[in-house]
Structure formats: C-alpha cells, structure tokens
User: Fold these one by one.
Assistant:
Number 1:
Amino acid sequence: SFEKTKKIQRLDRTVRAFLKSAMNIVLKTLLIVVVASILGVPMSTFVAIITAASLAIGLALQGGLTNIAGGIIILCFKPFEIGDFIETSSYSGTVVDIGLIYTTINTPDNKRVVIPNGTVSNASVVDYSAYETRRLDLELSVAYDSDIDMVKETLLSLANAHELVLKDPAPFVRLGTHGDSALIFKLRVWVKNEDYWTVNFDLLEASKKVFDKRGIEIPFPQLDVHQK
C-alpha cells in the first residue's frame, strides 16, 4: 500500500499524510478518465468537458483552491506537525491530520475539529509542542500585612521541592502587583511540556496548604462603602 512503501515511510509523517490525501484525489480522477475511455467516450470530447468543468469548478471552489494552497504552505514551511498541540484563533488541540484541504485537531475534551488549511495558514498559530520545556507563570495573592520575605521564601521552597520543576532556569518569585485588596506575587518555574498541568495544579494546591500552616492569609476581595 501507499503508506507501506519504504521510500514513503522515510518521509515525515506530516508529509505522508499530505501526499496520501493528494494521491487519493489524483487516482480517483485518473479512474474516471480510464472508465470513460473504456466506455468509448472520445478523448477530445472528454478533454473539452474536463476543461469546461474545471473552469466552472475552479470559479465555484475558489475557497477550496485557497485551502489547497494553504496545505502546501503548511507542508513546506512546517509551522506545526502531526502530534503537536497548537492553538489557533478559535480552537486548541492536538494535530491528528494535515490533509490537502483541511487540518484536523482533537481538543482536550475529545472533540474533533476540522479547520480549512486556508484559515490555518493565514492565522496566528501557537505551537506548544515546539520546544521541550515551557515556563509556568502563577499569581498568588496574600494579605497586605504579610511578611514579604517569608512569602518569597515559602514559594521558592515550594517550587524547589517539587520533583518536576526544573532547576535550570531556577524558580523565580517576586512581588508583582499591589492589588486592590492583596499583594500579588508572581511565581515562575520551568517544566517539561508534558508536566505543565501537573505542576500547575500541584503548586496551587500546595501553596494553599503551606500558607495555612504558616499563617499567611489569602484575603477575600474587600469593598469599603461610606454612607453620608
């Protein structure tokens, strides 16, 4: 079969998927031509029909041609590949197929989304799988009367103790914002791509527990109302 050919197997899987889609269309077109020839349809007549039909179809399917061009752009410049987790203007998910006309992604909640290649090639795309590591940014609020040095030391210790947090670059903690009713600290750590959400949830849960143990208050939003 097409995908089992040794030379084809050496190609990138994104290229293989694209070529499979293109070959499918070409072979079906050739099959129609062969069948018409067997049935005795004169080739000159058939060519004229194909030419006229191609013109009509081309005018009707300008969007389709744009999608084909978009597919070629994706294939050549490789802004992402099959297996990458990407985010477009409307959707995010794992790329499962890059066809001649459409790119298919699976969303985290297991929905399949089919996006025209013309749309993808002309939009901004975030590829979260491009690099092996990723920075996790957290914002944690504490009361205004909290000891700043204690909060920083607590969060740094928490980050350094997590086995999935990378040591280089080292974790970073600083007071980032004076909020309306709280001091907001920024905690930044580097993790492997596949560990991003695990570390995100672990640090959020662990920070609440350690704040409670050390008496560091997480304030509720407050609003002072003065009545005359």
Number 2:
Amino acid sequence: MVFQPIIDFITQHSFFILTGHETPDGDAIGSECALARVLANMGKNVHILNADPTPRKFRFVDHDKRITVLKTKRQLPENLEEYVLIILDTNDTGNIGRVAQLVLPLVKDYFIIDHHDIEMDIHTGNIVQRNASSTAEILYQIIKALGAEIDYPTALALFTAIVYDTGSFVYPKTTAFTFKIAHEMVEKGVNPNHVYAQVYECNSISSVILQSRVLSTLELVLQNHVAIQVMLKETVIDSGAKYEEADQIINIPLKAEAVKVSIFFKEDLAGLLRCSLRSKGHIDVAEIAKSFGGGGHRNAAGFKCRESMEEVRRKVLDKLKLYFH
C-alpha cells in the first residue's frame, strides 16, 4: 500500500513535531492542524513549529492553539532526541526556515508529505503525490488508511486547506476526488460560506492599500502576455499591511485574457527578495523556478532571488520568450 511507510512511521513513534514551509499558506496550516489533531487523538505527543507566523486569515483553523513560531532553542522540548519530524507541503528541507537548523539535525528521523511537482528531497521517507490538489488531499487518504476519526476541527482544517490550494476548486489539479473530500467535510459540519469569508473576506484595510500600491507597479511585456509586479519592503511598511497579506495579488493580472504569466517580485521586512510565478495553460513555471533553486507546481511556483531583481527579471523573461514567439 502506498501509505504503508507513513502509517508505520506514525505507529512506531510517540513524539512528533510538525512543520511546513516558510511563510505558511492555507494548505500548510490546514494540513498541520489536521494531522496534529489526528495524532493527538491517537495519544501521541504533538507540537507544531513553524518558521513564520500564521497569517491572520488562517488562525481560525488552529482550533487547539498548537502552532508556535520557532525563534530560539528554548522553545524546543527537552527530550528532542525522542521526537520525529513530519514536514508538510514542501519537499525541500531548505524551505522550512529555522526548523532546518534547530530541529532537523537533532530529531530521530523525519518524513515528508507533499504534492509539489518537483521532488527536492529523495533521501528520506517521502510521500509526494504530484497529481494531488493539495497536501490536505493526501492527508485525508492517510487518515482514512490509519482508520482515524475525522472530527469537526479536523474536517475544518482539511476543507480550508483544500479550498485555498485549489483556488476554491478551480485550479488544474482539482478532481472529482477533491470534491468528494469536500462533500464529506461539509457533511461533518463545515460551513463553506464561513470558510470562504474567513479566507477571502477578512482582509485588513491596510491590505487593500497595499494591493493598490502594488498594482500601480504593474508592467506588461512580451506582447501583453506577461505581467510583472513589484513589492518592496518600504511599500509594505508604508501601507501598514503585513507581508503575508500580499499572497493573492499575483493572481490579479491573470484575470485578463491576454495575460498568460504573472511575475511578482516581493521583498519581506528582512529584505529577502522572492520571485513568485503563476501561469495559465501549458506554461511550466515550476521548471523556471527550479532553474533558480526553487520549485512548485506547473502553474504556480517561486524561488528566492540570489541575484538582483534586474538580473532575475532578465533571465526569467528570456526563458518565457520561448513560449511567446
């Protein structure tokens, strides 16, 4: 059975730390909370340690208030050597922030559950299902294979994760099975309208100001097929918004029929510059991200910029020119 390795991993251990990628999104947060709930109900000792804070719009998913932002070693359990680590929603151990330095080298073992197209870590136990709509979709199957109960808080976490990572059930990896899971979660009491309102209609006024300022940087190139937007840390500070509140801005240019690729350069408050990529149709932005040391899905990917914005922009556009003769 495809899930036997993770079932054995869970069965054989009692102390777990869960984590996700840096700047966690709805799938990472929802998957962590769902798995933590299931493990705790099985009598396991569970901690969720993330490199970055939970975005405000996803805090409602953390029903048991388990998520901690890891900052120092003092936050770690004293018997850390008895713990194992489960990494969710990324298969790149370089993409889990401080957890990579403070936790990963000291735990007994680790396991990865993910659905991204490019598999970065091949040296440990992995379940990477590239066709899954979300990590939560994989977790649903694991929970079923364990014979564990999906109670309301677990259902809420799974449903929210799937809603976010499918773009409300419209992204290419959405299948009939995705809707089957959603249907079951609603039967368990999840209110779709409530989840949508929390995720998409609870933004701050500052985030709207941030969005308007980022949109003012919009540039169209390659015969209007490629949109480029820029968000510097000064823009975030001046707007009064939080960095993570910019997560949906990249999708706005794709609402134009002519725009096939959206590029978003965004700088966090520490000065780290990232390049996010979104595309429509056959344009594989995951391969582009991989060439810069990043990863993701065919139509949604990103990477950390190790060169200047101007140099990265030039190289990305050179790769995209192949699609637009």
